[in-house]
Amino acid sequence: MKGEEKGEGPEDQDTIGIYVGKRNPEGDRHGEGWAVLPNGDYYAGCYCRGQRNGKGLYVFKNGARYEGEWRRAMKYGVGRMVYPDGSRYEGDWRHDVKQGFGAYYYPNGDIYEGAWFKGKRHGLGTYFFSEYQIKFMGTWVEGAIQGPGQIIYPRYRYHGSWLKGKPKGPGCFVFDTNCMQHGFYLLIKDPATEEFGEGEEEKEEKELKDERLEEEEEREFDETLGKIATWRARNVTAYMSEFLPPEPVPLPVHDSVPSLTDESCIITDEIQFDQPSIVPEDEGGDDNDSWLLHRQEFLEEAVQKDDA
User: Fold this and answer.
1) For 258, which of 173, 250, 265, 301 is 20 to 30 Å away at the CA?
2) Torsion sign across C-alpha atoms 106, 110, 111, 115
3) 181 pairs with which residues across the strands?
């Protein structure tokens, strides 16, 4: 059939693997179905003209799994991704990457909730540090804390600005006793990077290292490199809101990639499917065995419907 010759994505360059489901008159996968791909991945959900489109469940061979919306074989819309290390992301996707608003839950208990752009934390967000029981609220730029924000501790909080993940510039600590400590953060050279008692070999290595650093600095100057943030207090006053630094604001983003909305395929978003049962490896059999078992059950149900 025509659909068996075309495939549906990069993973199907040699063969499309096993597919059970609906097709359109041209032979393309179209509607509800499921497939075992040649690389061992599994997909169950909706198709539109040979591509994943609508709601679907994708299970990767390494144990990761995505359940949510698709557009033209890419994660696009709202979905939930669970990674092999146990972390998970729940939120918006665009063009196969995290983009929009979403929450990421880390294995160590940390949680980030906020804006994403092209797969990185970007914009307003909140990060909870589980080990220290503190929370950061502010702005992120390309995955790093940058701009105005605040860190909330159990009995006080700090308001200020950050540069590439490090506090920098004027700020203030606000305590539960309704007082404020004003001051500023300086970026100074980290004493741990200083070298003492250099020999000839160490000097030559240092010169080569300095040359490489100069070349890197010419490409991109980073004033936070090799620096640590040090607090310098100036004075203490009663709490007054007008003394607080500026609050963080949303960052403008511009996505030049055209929308993947295809009105002729929106109807497939409404198709519902039953999530297959998966036999864990520690209970006997591997993932591929469970897919074949599900395929056999699918075929038996189809035969029963035909006989009826």
Assistant:
1) 250
2) negative
3) 173, 236
- Model confidence pLDDT, tens digit, residues 81-112: 999 999 999 999 999 999 999 999 999 999 99
Q: What predicted TM-score, i.e. pTM, was given to this entire model?
A: 0.72
Secondary structure of 111-145 in HEC code, one letter for each residue: EEEEEEECCEEEEEEEEEECCCCEEEEEEEECCEE
Does residue 230 sit within a domain?
no
Distances (CA, A) of 204 to 199, 207, 208, 210, 213: 9, 5, 6, 10, 14
Domain presence at residue 23: yes
DSSP-assigned letters across all residues of 155-201 = SEEEEEEEETTEE-EEEEEEETTSEEEEEEEEEEE-GGG---S--HH
Task: Quote the domain boundaries for residue 62.
Answer: 1-68+265-302
pLDDT digits (tens, 9 = 90+) for 218-242: 446 677 888 999 999 999 999 999 9
Distance, first Cα to last Cα, the chain = 27
Residue 64 lies in a domain: yes
93 lies in some domain: no
What's the number of domains the chain is made of? 1
Give the pLDDT confidence of 26-64 residue by residue, as tens digits: 999 999 999 999 999 999 999 999 999 999 999 999 999
pLDDT at position 221 is 67
Q: Which of 138, 136, 137 is nearest to 147 (CA)?
A: 138
